[in-house]
Design brief:
single chain; mainly alpha; 5 helices
Length: about 150
């Protein structure tokens, strides 16, 4: 009698174990399918980003070519033929007060640079950023080439 009860309990435990294993297997299969979906999404994103990078690279290349072509044209422009009144420039950009301050700043930067100060020293003396001084000097350098 005791053997029958133990046999029934054993069969019952085996059935419960099989149900539990099937439930876990189903959960793992769902996780696997989710991972497969993520993997395909990642591959699609990789393909799109590669395509985007190629497009950006070709855009940059074409822009560089255009800039090089335009810079050759700019070198030969005579500025005297294209005079623009200072008043129109100020109205165009709506920076009448800043324009004069920027001219003064540019003159100060060029003077200090002519004395022999480096960009960091000029920035400290004028209370400006080093990058701002770099930009002003580079713009002035570019203006020399256009003239």
């Amino acid at each position: 009698m005791i053997y029958r009860i133990l046999l029934i309990i054993g069969i019952f435990l085996v059935i419960i174990s099989l149900i539990y294993i099937k439930k876990i297997n189903k959960s793992e299969e769902e996780r696997y399918n989710e991972i497969v979906g993520m993997y395909s999404d990642i591959n699609e994103y990789r393909r799109c980003s590669t395509e985007l990078m190629d497009n950006i690279e070709s855009l940059v290349d074409s822009t560089i070519v255009k800039i090089n072509n335009n810079s050759e044209k700019v070198k030969y422009i005579d500025i005297d033929d294209h005079e623009v009144e200072e008043k129109n420039k100020i109205n165009l950009f709506n920076v009448s007060d800043k324009f004069n301050n920027n001219e003064d700043l540019t003159e100060k930067v060029l003077t200090l640079n002519g004395i022999g100060l480096n960009n960091k020293e000029i920035a400290q003396k004028l209370g400006r950023g080093v990058r701002e001084i770099d930009i002003i000097l580079n713009m002035n350098e570019n203006n020399k080439y256009v003239k």
